[in-house]
Amino acid sequence: MKCRYCKTELIYEIIDLVNSPPSNSYLTKEELNEPEVFYPLKIYVCHNCFLVQIDEYKKSNEIFNENYIYFSSFSKSLLEHSKKYADMVIKRFNLNENSKVIEIASNDGYLLQFFQEANIPCLGVEPSLKTGKVAKEKGIEVIDKYFGTVLAKELVKKGQLPDLLIGNNVLAHVPDILDFVNGLKILLNDTGVITMEFTHLMQLIDKNLFDTIYHEHFSYFSFLSVKLLFESFDLEIFDVEEIPTQGGSLRIFAKHQEDKTKEISNNVSNLLEKEISKKMNSIDYYRNFQEKVNNVKYSLLQFLLDVKKKSKKVAAYGAAAKGNTLLNYCGIKSDLIEFVADKSPYKIGKFLPGSHIPIVEEEHIKIEKPNYILILPWNIKEEIMKQLDYVNEWNCKFVIPMPEVKVL
């Protein structure tokens, strides 16, 4: 296996989460009686460029197909984050009705709707048909294709050169990152800006957020590695922000290297220095990750076994992809967690992959009155605890699994 950036042979495995089904491959009742495909879930670090990456067992076109049912608009906190971002970039880069915004992986229009409301022309690129259809119903123009060099050239021919090119939580999902970033370079207009958000590898490892590792995420970026990637296509990162989403993410701002209209922020050198001081450009930084991951597994299993022996009832909330990584690595099934409640009607009535825990409506919590609720999308725990505050009536406790098991 070779590094997807520099093609160096990968020899350093930093974590092995054993075998797992794809995290968003929810099952119908009929499918429970059929064989389920599990893929290895191993992460490597390249000793040459320090890109952290998965071995690609499942192709992206098998993941982001018509059965892909992650809809961003069901997260209130993500909508608030997106609105704040839209207001910021509109003001910072003076976007107006004469500007053009293109978002790659636009999902159900959760972000572009805010540009549309500001009368800024926008276009979404979304290969998943179900989510793209919802965006189209909001009046947003969507292209149902994967983004890369080929699509970038098609859009340039049509005169669709954006002033702002957005890619939030998509860079990690791209198997061919060279083709993808080359497409960004081709498509961006001469003085345009690229912004991208993705989980920060430093936060993932330092906070032990291993449940953000799944087959849909092919690469895991430090600022060092993403800067190297962009620079190899003459794209310069002129600003970076550390933001709280997904337990700790980066938002990068990039431009053409030849564009001299934007100053380089001190944030760039400051973050590089921070990562270098932590030795992220050294194999040593990555060595003890597996041990930290195993400690979470043992703690969560111990907690669930202890409460089960006391005949207490445990449910979960949020049929999130990250939850599936956690449950499958820990080997947790429906004997330890009876059900998972969720807000998305697209998931209700289905079952979690691997663990086969049934997904039910939130109303089920009020009927069953569990003693504990394990919050699987822990990154939005405040939103969920507020939403479920009625469980205090029967003294139900919340359990947060990451970065360590806590009962609240």
Summed up:
This protein has 408 residues and is an alpha/beta fold.
What's the arrangement of secondary structure elements?
Layout: E1 12-20, E2 39-45, E3 52-54, H1 60-63, H2 76-92, E4 101-104, H3 112-117, E5 122-125, H4 129-137, E6 141-143, H5 149-157, E7 164-168, H6 177-187, E8 193-199, H7 201-206, E9 219-220, H8 223-231, E10 235-243, E11 249-256, H9 266-277, H10 289-309, E12 314-317, H11 321-330, E13 340-341, E14 359-360, H12 363-368, E15 372-375, H13 381-387, E16 397-400, E17 406-407
Parallel strand pairs: 4-5, 4-7, 5-6, 7-8, 12-13, 12-15, 13-14, 15-16
Antiparallel strand pairs: 1-2, 2-3, 3-9, 8-11, 10-11, 16-17
Helix pairs in contact: 5-6
Structural class: alpha/beta
Strand content: 15-25%
Biggest sheet, spatial arrangement of strands: 6-5-4-7-8-11-10
Number of strands: 17
Kindly state the mean pLDDT as a whole number?
Answer: 93
Q: Would you identify the CATH H-level superfamily of the largest domain?
A: Vaccinia Virus protein VP39
